[in-house]
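[job 4471] stage=fold_predict status=RUNNING
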Amino acid sequence: MNKIITGVVAGIIVFAWGMVSWMVLPLHKDSIEKLNVPIALEAVKQAAPESGMYAYPHMDASKEEMKNKPHVLVVTNYAEKSLPVCMGIGFLIQLLGGIFLACLVSKSGLEKFGDRMKLILKVVIFTGIVGSLPNWHYWGFTPMYTALEFADLIIGWGLAGLWIAKRA
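[job 4471] inference complete, writing structure tokens
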């Protein structure tokens, strides 16, 4: 039960950091460019008429299609979205992550706070490497967006890690 409570509190810490990072601090404002809305929406509706992920050039594109043309990743979701529901699901995801990390640390056998923090930071850095860098490399996520995503992982889970390392 202690691991679950520790993980839940860690998830709350990470969720709170995400809210501060995205909604209070102006960090992410310049990491995503604005679209020319009327033109972009009409083009997206025509090119991607159903909810899904669309890419150009597609995976079966010729070498000629790959040259000198923009690479585009479009994610469409035509379902009505509710901010409270989206945030609630995001909150649950962070809670699951906190519980998982608390269980991992408690099963590690590490007794010292510093050793537990080192493990947590290694997990967080691993997550950033395999979770964020492929989007930068393959899809062209901007370096600024990728760096901020990585920083959010390290700060949010670093703060939660302090709690986990003390309690797990």
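[job 4471] summary: The beta strands are 52-56, 72-76.
[job 4471] exit 0
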